[in-house]
Design goal:
The structure is a single chain. By secondary structure, the protein is of the alpha+beta class. The protein is built from 23 helices and 13 strands. The chain has a domain of 199 residues. A hairpin with a 2-residue loop joins strand 4 and strand 5.
Length: 597
């Protein structure tokens, strides 16, 4: 039925697919809908409208490339829990004598690790160490964290398993042509682009901002916490903190009530009664809180309860960065049960390195903000909080030993078996994951927790959308349009595709960009009678070359908060970086795989 209705040389199924993809783009750009839910919705629309059959709509979940990604999560879990990655992070950076050497020492090993492991995992492990390293070197963390993120993206391009788009594009190519792309097919082009990237970062170092670390705003907690004592003759004794008006003050809020017998009440319930000798701990704007002290009949206690270096052994302060998906991005803490649910108190908030001088419980947080949380010690190490990256998580270094060596051997064997074509990549990865479990490099529970199901759903959705673009004729139509615009000039076609792909991947998942552009690039190459392989290798590099916006890559968001960056910081160095890597990409691919034109 759908195939019989044609609009502008495309049938109704094609237009439904186009509208679905546009809606997907818009939801990723302008809403807080998570990527996995957006892709699941796109799959549902394509299935319910009859664009894809039930089997086709579910094909992404049985894709070998999606299975490879899932299995690799377990391999990485083995490397983490045996201390392999932490040992590398701890011992590899050294003490360089100049900024240029520091950039090489940082970007080269990060790129090497990212060629075989999850970029996000590698950056997450390095972030906190790099911040400490920057203090040792006497430079701002903001001078090092953008290069860290860039290195992970460029390093990931260097192997087929290094970055999600490579796996997606190679899987779709095998499905279309029956041929496989070699494990190291992208290594030489990737290394050239990496080398150009490292040189470019060093040359453009002045474009990197010199910003204070967000934690600097929390360097001394006595700067923003005030302890006030309820004297025995205070008029409000016997009232609740709400009746006395003590729970919320202008510019701050009550975070703890400490009884005369040292009982600590936190968070403080509004119905908590006041007694003589109680100590009230406020966080917020100091001057306003001290002004409140005079009005309320309270007196200053003999010392602040909290300092960074010395505070009650029953309490613990932890700093964290806000990431996408955090529940307080939608509502301030005062309108939720967040503190009660997680047994903590939100003490302070900093944005772009500057402490926000208002009640933190009334702040609507943004991605990249830094928060200071106070726990009772018995709760401080329990459970991750979705959307928060704690700065002290990377301090955990697993003790190295025999299992460290075993996990390393397993990883090397997996790469060797696949690259030498002894076994397909999926089989090699499955064997490696099984070996990690057999040799107890990680437990089954750790393996299951390591699997990022939302990423797998995005992968599956990307495959399905790519299939829809091809099935409905959109790929062929766009390929013909590009041919009409550029003529039969392969180099011009490759350049246009890479330019558009690089632009698009600044705003949406590079996995999605790879899946969407694959059928277009593939059919364009076939239409010109060219080998599609060089076009696809150039596409792999292009969709991973997102340097100009912090939303262009998950690793950019990981460093955004710790670096105290602004959106414009990425634009300043990212736009020239995009052009440089694009030129290097096109040059090296055409030198290695001459296509004419």
């Amino acid at each position: 039925m759908l195939d019989s209705i044609v609009l502008w040389n495309l049938n109704l199924a094609a237009w439904i697919t186009i509208v679905t993809i546009l809606a997907l783009f818009l939801s990723l750009l302008f809403t807080r809908i998570s990527e996995d839910i957006a892709f699941l919705g796109a799959i549902a629309i394509l299935g319910l409208t009859g664009v894809l059959s039930e089997t086709e709509a579910l094909a992404g979940f049985s894709s070998s490339s999606v299975a490879v990604v899932g299995v690799l999560f377990i391999v990485v879990a083995g490397l983490i829990h045996t201390g392999v990655l932490q040992w590398i992070v701890k011992n590899i950076l050294g003490t360089p004598k100049s900024y240029s050497i520091a950039i090489v020492n940082l970007m080269a090993p990060v790129a090497a690790l990212s060629a075989f492991l999850s970029n996000t995992t590698v950056v997450a492990l390095f972030v906190h160490v790099v911040k400490k390293w920057s203090v040792k070197l006497g430079v701002s963390p903001s001078k090092l964290l953008i290069p860290l993120s860039y290195a992970s993206g460029m390093g990931g391009v260097c192997t087929i398993i290094g970055t999600p788009p490579n796996l997606i594009i190679s899987g779709l190519y095998a499905q279309e042509s029956g041929n496989t792309i070699g494990f190291f097919a992208t290594t030489v082009p990737g290394l050239v682009c990496l080398g150009v990237g490292i040189i470019s970062v060093i040359a453009m170092r002045r474009l990197l901002p010199d910003r204070p670390s967000p934690e600097d705003a929390f360097s001394q907690t006595s700067d923003y916490t005030v302890e006030l004592l309820v004297p025995a003759d205070n008029l409000h004794i016997g009232q609740t903190v709400d009746e006395a008006g003590f729970n919320h003050v202008e510019g701050g809020h009550l975070i703890e009530l400490i009884r005369f017998d040292r009982e600590i009440i936190s968070p403080v319930n509004k119905d908590e009664p006041l007694m003589g000798g109680d100590r009230l701990v406020y966080a917020g704007a100091i001057e306003q809180i001290l002004s409140f002290r005079k009005q309320s009949g309270l007196v200053s206690a003999h010392h602040p309860v909290f300092t960074t270096d010395n505070f009650s052994q029953s309490r613990k302060l932890r700093t964290a960065y806000v990431r996408p998906g955090f529940e307080l991005l939608r509502k301030p803490a005062s309108e939720t049960t967040f503190e009660k649910d997680h047994h903590l108190t939100l003490v302070a908030v900093a944005s772009k390195g500057n402490k926000i001088l208002k009640s933190p419980r009334d702040v609507r947080l943004n991605v990249g903000d830094t928060v200071l949380l106070e726990y009772a010690s018995r709760y401080s190490g329990k459970g991750a909080i979705e959307g928060l990256a704690f700065t002290d998580d990377a301090d955990y270094i697993t003790e190295t030993g025999a299992k460290t060596l075993i996990a390393t051997i397993i990883m090397v064997a997996m790469v060797a078996l696949s690259s030498l074509n002894v076994l397909p990549l999926l089989h090699s990865a499955v064997l490696a994951a099984a070996a990690m479990l057999i040799f107890r490099c990680c437990t089954p529970s750790q393996a299951m927790k390591s699997i990022s199901w939302n990423i797998l759903l995005i992968f599956a959705g990307s495959v399905v959308i790519g299939n829809a673009i091809e099935k409905t004729g959109i790929a062929t139509a766009l390929a013909s349009g590009v041919m009409n615009l550029c003529g039969s000039k392969p180099l011009l076609v490759m350049t246009m595709m890479c330019v558009v792909a690089t632009f698009v991947t600044e705003f949406i998942s590079n996995t999605a960009a790879g899946a969407i552009f694959f059928p277009i690039v593939y059919h364009s190459a076939i239409s010109m009678g060219c080998n599609p392989l060089p076009f696809l290798i150039a596409l792999m590099i292009a969709v991973s070359s997102s340097f100009a916006t912090p939303i262009g890559s998950p690793t950019h968001l990981l460093v955004y908060g710790p670096g105290g960056y602004r959106f414009s910081d990425f634009l300043k160095i990212g736009l020239p970086m995009n052009l440089i890597i694009l030129a290097a990409n096109l040059l090296i691919v055409n030198l290695l795989y001459p296509i004419g034109g």
